[in-house]
């Protein structure tokens, strides 16, 4: 931080700083490497880590917040550097989304698979391991969807957002309550 008594206003220095052109090439490389790595890590962590926002959305919010905050608070960060970073982040986001839409291989990374967790009132436990979700969490998600008994559920899907989409039978028969007080041997 600069001592207030040493400060003199210099618009060109505020805008460009004392950096050479090479810093912008380095920033471009840094943004590409960090954004790519972070997207892979967020994908590895799983759906629950990002909630209803996608991994790219979370990354966009964090990266832009950091770039904007640094430029506003630290006089040593030239505005053109911050503007370059923000622009590169936005371009990276657009390319990431467009590639995910256009290419199936990229889409597998950008959009996690939707998994069926319940079919005809039965838990499909073999699908739990795909997204590292356990039985207790599935039951919690079902209860949050207003389900009292597994027999009510025709199909339930674990969505890309980490939420559960539940399709109920029209006339269900109550037999396997998932309420905590009734679970007993279900767990």
How would you summarize the topology of this molecule?
Layout: H1 11-16, H2 22-45, H3 47-50, H4 55-73, H5 79-102, H6 104-110, E1 115-119, E2 122-123, H7 135-144, E3 153-158, E4 164-168
Antiparallel strand pairs: 1-2, 1-3, 3-4
Helix pairs in contact: 2-4, 2-5, 4-5, 5-6
Q: What's the short version?
A:
Helices cover 50% and strands 10% of the residues. It is built from seven helices and four strands. Strands 2-1-3-4 form a four-stranded antiparallel β-sheet, with helices on one face.
Task: Please name the defining characteristics of this protein.
CRO Repressor; YetF C-terminal domain-containing protein; 7 helices; 4-stranded antiparallel β-sheet; DUF421; alpha+beta; 2 domains; 187 residues; membrane
Q: Describe it for me?
A:
The protein has 187 residues and is an alpha+beta fold. It folds into 2 domains: 12-110, no CATH class; 115-186, 2-Layer Sandwich (CRO Repressor). Helices cover 50% and strands 10% of the residues. The chain has 7 helices and 4 strands. The protein has helices spanning 11-16, 22-45, 47-50, 55-73, 79-102, 104-110, 135-144, and strands spanning 115-119, 122-123, 153-158, 164-168. The protein has a 4-stranded antiparallel sheet, covered by helices on one side. A hairpin with a 5-residue loop joins strand 3 and strand 4. The chain is elongated. The model has no long low-confidence stretch (mean pLDDT 78). It comes from Cyclobacterium qasimii. Residues 102-173 form the YetF C-terminal domain. Belongs to the UPF0702 family.
Number of separate strands:
4
Number of domains: 2
What oligomerization state is this entry in? single chain
Beta-strand percentage range:
5-15%
User: How many DSSP H or I helices?
Assistant: 7
Mean pLDDT over the residues? 78
Structural class by SSE content: alpha+beta
Order of helices and strands: HHHHHHEEHEE
**Largest sheet, if any?**
4 strands, antiparallel
Work out the helicity level. Answer: 40-55%
């Amino acid at each position: 931080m600069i001592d207030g008594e040493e400060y003199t206003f210099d618009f060109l220095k505020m805008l460009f700083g004392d950096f050479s052109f090479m810093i912008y090439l380095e920033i471009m490389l840094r943004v590409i490497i960090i954004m790519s790595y972070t997207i892979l890590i967020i994908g590895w962590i799983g759906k629950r880590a990002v909630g209803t926002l996608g991994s790219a959305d979370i990354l966009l919010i964090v990266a832009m917040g950091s770039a904007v905050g640094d430029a506003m608070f630290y006089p040593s960060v030239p505005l053109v550097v911050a503007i370059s970073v923000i622009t590169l982040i936005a371009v990276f986001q657009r390319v990431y989304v467009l590639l995910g839409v256009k290419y199936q291989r990229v889409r597998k990374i950008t959009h996690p698979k939707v998994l069926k967790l319940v079919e005809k009132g039965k838990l499909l436990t073999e699908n739990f391991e795909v997204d590292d979700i356990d039985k207790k969490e599935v039951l919690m998600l079902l209860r949050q969807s207003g389900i009292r008994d597994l027999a009510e559920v025709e199909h339930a899907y674990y969505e890309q957002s980490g939420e559960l989409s539940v399709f109920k039978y029209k006339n269900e028969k109550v037999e396997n309550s998932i309420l905590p007080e009734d679970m007993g041997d279900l767990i």
